[in-house]
Amino acid sequence: MGLGYLVKRLAVMVPVFLLVVTLVFFMIRFAPGGPFSGERNVSPEILRNLNAKYHLDKPLMEQYFSYLSDLSRGDLGPSFKYANRTVNQLIAESFPVSLELGAIALMWALAIGLFAGGIASMKPNSFWDYVPMSFSILGICLPTFVIGPLLVLVFAVWLEWLPVAGWNSWEDRILPSLTLGFAYAAFISRLTRGGLLEIRNQDFIRTARAKGLSETRILVVHSLRGGLLPVVSYMGPALAGIVSGALVTETIFNIPGLGRFFIQSAVNRDYTVVMGTALLYFALIFVCNFFVDVAYALLDPRVKYE
Amino acid sequence: MSRASAIQTIGIPLQPEPAPKGHSLWGDAFLRLRKNKLAVTGLLFLLVECAVFAFTPWVAPYGFETQDLSNTLAAPSALHWFGTDTLGRDLFTRVLYGGRISLLVGVLASLVSVLIGVLYGATAGFIGGKLDSLMMRVVDVLYALPFIFLVIILMVYFGRNIVLLFIALGFTQWLTMARIVRGQVISLRQKEYVDAARTMGVTQFRIVLRHLIPNSLGPVIVYLTLTVPTVVLEEAFLSFLGLGVQAPMASLGTLISGGVEVMEIAPWLLLFPAAALSLTLFSLNFLGDGLRDALDPKGAKD
Amino acid sequence: MAKTVLEVRNFQAFFHTRRGIVRAVDNVSFKVHEGETLGVVGESGSGKTVCQLSYLRLLPEPPLRIHSGEVILNGSLDLLKQAPSGMRKIRGSQVSMIFQEPMTSLNPYMTVGSQIMEPLRIHLKLSRKDAAIEAAKALDRVGIADVKAALGRYPHEFSGGMRQRVMIAMALTTKPKLLIADEPTTALDVTVQAQILDLLRSIQQETGMAIVFITHDLGVVASIAHEVVVMYAGKVMERGNAEQLFYQTQHPYTHALLQSTPRIDINQGKLPAIGGTPPDLSRLEQGCPFVGRCAHKRAICEGTFPEAKLYPAGHEAYCHLEGLPA
Predict the structure, then answer these.
(1) DSSP readout, C241-291?
(2) ipTM, 2 decimals?
(3) Interchain contact, A210 vs C104, CB within 8 Å
């Protein structure tokens, strides 16, 4: 099943991730303004935690390997700023919120994108094509931090249909997830339209028509699988984008998610939290990209032979 | 007419057809670009913008920091075209200065990315073989990572140095450039005239260099034009979050962030910087798309 | 007298474009009988393919518009009067089509088996099991080895010639009365070409299927066609049986085509070619479209389109001349 192809991908992913992890280790170890540097601006409690965790009296290589073994168990170390909390605890509080936000955003992106792109491909160069595609340019060019406030201005401040910020009721979820997902809806609609149109222009669709098949069958059975391949590939970058876009969205809407927490930690120079969060996100993205590769290989029978 | 004599025709001898008007690749591309209204509009907007930015200190009606505490949060008027902010500073002036910084960082960072990309890609292309293959696989994997995290981390560690900022931002965009350059180098190495020139004693390096630059110029320029808006966006993103350009300087991102805080009572503080940023991004994107279509007529349209 | 499977009478189909009206199919008539192959010959742009695609409703309308004529299937059904849903039932069951590029004409994302089974399940309403059995039989009939494995394979796993066989199998499972073959051998190399032609011939003998064989290659026509129609600029120039066309050519265009075919059995000297280019179909003049390139043109040729000159045994040529000058 295209095993060779996937193994080759893994063979590079793992070392790169390892490299990133190593970089992280050294960055934490040599953080300016951290306990390991000359400045002593960390509270004694935290210092104690760090010493215990990182075995600062042991040689560097031992520290590195114990860090690696901690990491393999998912232990991201203690916080630089909050004396009694570990990075894992802090992340665990906010990650589910971000997960929910990201998932709903992705749902919006797929629902709007696939639908708009699909219709545009069925009626190219018509109203149903020009209008959604022009609108999608907005999504591609405008940054999240422009779209978000604009949506808030229109729907929350002027029309007063939806709340301005917060994360309590189900209405709170609409604007933030829409803001976050809008750019990806735009991309997905273009990719869908492009992919399906390209399929429709292929010779084998003409063959399908010559066989007397209905347009519905041609769309569903013959076009979708090939036409949606670009969208499947896009899921990798889309996820990366949603993860980084969440940083801004959570800030604008005051959502207690991991993104906002990450920014706060960055401003506060809580190194372990910053690095730990980044590592988590990177790992997540790597894993998801791997699954996207698997899905692509499953969908396109020609990939087996690469 | 040698063609007619070479074949014995049945029927009327061939009429000489008028020779097609020749155009160089660039001339051709320029004509195509001219027809693309969006791209031309974008280009014009950018030219005007650059002109204004070049002369900002003389064009701006007020100082960047000049406060007028009796006139805070004023709506747009004849006195203050874009209104004023919480400290009575003229927004139009601030947008001009902010836009300057945004664009400057964007361009510089893009140049950095081109530099890194060219070095990496050319090396991979020249060396070839397993190393090339490995280098490209690394690029494939790195493609997935959101580099913005890396930039934030660098900002956290090394402080908010503006030089560091655009180097770090440049680092987020080199991947595609590396691929393009490597592709060019490889295709050039395979061309027959390389072998021919080699037998005449010219070194391979020299040949590739001579042909590499003119041939790659097109894609590099296109990519550069498309990288700038991406970087401008990233910088604005960082500044919006407070991690980019630091006070006293302000970029459009900083201004937008400030605008969001008071958008319920003074929406103009959000709308004008946002519009400035958006129009710049649109123009750059349209121009870049137009260049790409103009230089590659075979490229599929959507 | 064998039954007439397809009769095309005065068929006219034009493209309405911004640059003008392109008279792609202009007053074309021909007949195909049971067990017979009609070769439709012409250069690119002659309308030979557009003609068949038009009456099968496989071209988008607009810009195509069918103006007039009748296309009668099996002596009773006028295809031009059918609604789209009716045509869908006919395509793939009574009339099948195979195309030039087997590489791209099969869906790369579906197995060969599922593609062959499709017409069986949709048109003949066979169950999955029965359809699979029929599909296997069809693959066997076209000469594909290891049929069971083949059913589960994807098109890219086959060579060009095998893919064309798969296309043929797919077209024949529903036992159509008429097969339209659009240059099926052009993209294949010569040895494979011969095999495919043999296959089509043997299937035709077995089933009595009629074939409309579109090609620009006169060698292929000689090999497989019983009747031939020569088209130029959307119009019919000459029609007759193969022997008449090759040995008693009456139209200057047909003659020019024959002359310009490379031969290995005679010494041609310099390869003759027909000077000039085919006319712009949106700007056709009143007269004979070949007048610009004809070695025998007269004044009358520019003004009026010739009526058919009748020759023995159903041989016709549309030319002002009384037979080809020596």
Answers:
(1) EHHHHHHS--SHHHHHHHHTS--SSS--SSPPEE-S-PPPTTS--SS-TTG
(2) 0.85
(3) no
